[in-house]
Amino acid sequence: MASKGPRSKLDHETRARRQKALEAPKEPQRPKAHWDHVLEEMVWLSKDFESERKWKLAQAKKVAIRASKGMLDQATRGEKRVKEEEQRLRKVAVNISKDVKKFWTKIEKLASHLG
Questions:
Q1: In this predicted model, what pLDDT tens digit does every residue of 26-64 receive, in sequence order?
Q2: Which of 37, 47, 69, 113 is most solvent-facing, going by the fewest CB within 10 Å?
């Protein structure tokens, strides 16, 4: 049996030659006509439209995110105000309950001395 090393190298070389033979021959150089410039402009313009569309979508996404954050901020501001008011009322209630407890402890002391 023959080794596969040299045979595979020959196969590769013949494949490369066949591939080269199948490639379309390049057109000879010619001066640019008006239509060539029009085609170049069309390619450039299509890329420009595509990039501008991507940019506009990105800007729209940024605006939408900022708007939604603003709406959330307004909603959370209202909730925050309600929570702060509840905390303030609780502090007032705690202070009142402490004062009431102090009053009744003083009354108990007075009653224990009198009675």
A1: 878 889 999 999 999 999 999 999 999 999 999 999 999
A2: 113
